Amino acid sequence: MNILILGKSLHFLSVIKNRFPRENIVVVNWREIVNSEPLKIQFDLVFICGYDYSSYLTTYHEYFLVNIKRPYYYIAKNINKNTKVVYICTRIEDVQRTFSRYYYAKISLVNLLKKKFLNLYIIEIDTLVDKNKLLVRSDMFTKLIMHILINLKIAKTTHYEDVDKLIFESTSNSFFSSKIRGQFLLYKRTGFIDKLLRLFLG
Predict the structure, then answer these.
(1) CA distance 1 to 17
(2) Which of 12, 48, 113, 181 is deepest in the core (most CB within 10 A)?
(3) How confident is the model over 43-62, as pLDDT tens digits?
(4) Rounded to two decimals, what is the model's pTM?
């Protein structure tokens, strides 16, 4: 079996490679999509789990290119529409607008993929924790605030030990598809501010 992983999230890579230790796995770095050569392999299974976190501080144009436009065209060009595609996404809310760059990118991309691929499965993952340890790339202050928000049940979590089950035992490919509108996405911000905007404003 040939497997493509688009994105280099170490936590998800570990789970996928543990499940398929003997399969041919190709990993494409999210940030290197623009420079990647066309794929010459017919893939049986595709995992999408990327996001360019540095794009919080870039222009809106560059943020849109690296997280929505380039990944979509790369996938659409290289992957057969009948291939099983697993999109590891954030928690999807029934909202029509968002102030979060992260959320807007995730939902915009999944809406595009839904129109293209017949076998698209969306796996919703909240903030990852492992035995109360946050599995996020951030400084100590941000982690402290996130712990407080989690304890107040404002921020939701997914336990790392449950990720394998969520990815490989999910049989649903349903998705509430809506036209998501971005608010104030032109403005640069840190990832922490973007998270707060999503939690409190949507």
Answers:
(1) 13
(2) 48
(3) 999 999 989 999 999 999 99
(4) 0.87
